[in-house]
Design goal:
Strand content: under 5%
CATH superfamily of the largest domain: DnaJ domain
CATH architecture of the largest domain: Orthogonal Bundle
Distance between the termini: 71 Å
CATH class of the largest domain: Mainly Alpha
Helix content: 55-70%
Mean pLDDT: 86
Order of helices and strands: HHHHHHHHH
Shape: rod-shaped
Number of strands: 0
Low-confidence stretches: none
Radius of gyration: 24 Å
Number of domains: 2
Length: about 160
């Protein structure tokens, strides 16, 4: 792939504006694919190779721009002059979710059970809180914060 193709950001590559919605991105990628798909250049190995790389770059652009989280990370990097998406930047950005109660959770299932437990603790329904915390712990067995919350609930149950 030429340096000029490599230096273009995903929006330029697909020929869309930065505020494009998913339908506009999809349409732009289909137009791009009709022109640059490697199967269109079977007779010329050099052209086929160049368009294969260009098509892969366009496919990457499409995948990133259609995923809201990846697109947000890409746009932040683009503002800093980075024209390619890097998965390691996505890992840095991926944060744990903190539902009400302030416990860091990675699993969406654990988050649901912890949210229920938190509501039960607020209404002082300790048995329900205990049950939901145990379910949350089944989804995140190594979470020390969940274990500490369960201990708090057990202490409340003993003191009653």
């Amino acid at each position: 792939m030429s340096d000029a193709d490599e230096a273009r950001d995903y929006y330029q590559l697909l020929g869309i504006i930065r505020a494009a919605n998913a339908d506009q991105i999809r349409s732009a990628f289909h137009r791009f694919a009709r022109v640059h798909h490697p199967d269109n250049f079977v007779g010329s190995p050099e052209e086929s190779e160049r368009h294969t790389e260009l098509y892969q770059h366009g496919s990457e652009a499409y995948r990133v721009l259609c995923d809201p989280m990846k697109r947000k990370i890409y746009d932040e990097g683009l503002d800093q002059g980075v024209v390619r998406y890097a998965e390691d930047r996505a890992q840095e950005k991926r944060r744990t979710m903190r539902p009400p109660g302030g416990v860091a959770l990675r699993s969406s299932k654990a988050r649901v059970f912890f949210t229920r437990a938190h509501r039960a603790m607020q209404s002082q329904d300790w048995a329900q809180a205990k049950l939901n915390l145990q379910m949350a712990l089944q989804n995140e067995p190594g979470n020390d914060e969940l274990k500490a919350k369960l201990e708090e609930v057990l202490q409340q149950m003993k003191s009653r």
